[in-house]
């Protein structure tokens, strides 16, 4: 889990920022639903998508190397990521 997902503490609370909307899904869409199983469904879907779309390679191919010292135009990042398979 730590390989793909940051801790849920401090500023790394990605599920709280992006995944809580999954909790509003009708639980009937999840077989054998039990409380909070949507958290696992969200994390699995996110990791599968991450493994399918190599966003770091797409950025590198456009000479955009993520780091804390450089800034890139948002439009350049968008254009690089648009080249990923749909």
Key descriptive features of the protein:
86 residues, mainly alpha
Written overview of the protein:
With 86 residues, the chain is mostly helical. It folds into 2 domains: 1-52, no CATH class; 54-86, no CATH class. The chain contains 4 helices and no strands. It has helices spanning 14-19, 37-52, 55-61, 74-82. The protein is elongated. The two termini are 26 Å apart. This is Ribonuclease T2. GO terms for molecular function: ribonuclease T2 activity; RNA binding. It comes from Neolecta irregularis (strain DAH-3). Belongs to the RNase T2 family. InterPro entries: RNase_T2-like, RNase_T2-like_sf.
H/E element sequence: HHHH
Percent of residues in helices: 40-55%
Radius of gyration: 16 Å
Inertia-based shape: elongated
| Strand percent estimate | under 5%
Query: What structural class should be given to the helix and strand makeup?
Result: mainly alpha
Mean pLDDT, all residues: 77
User: What is the count of helical runs?
Assistant: 4
Q: How many individual domains? A: 2
Question: Strand count, sense and closure of the main sheet?
Answer: none
Uncertain spans: none
Q: What is the straight-line distance between the termini?
A: 26 Å
How many strands in all? 0
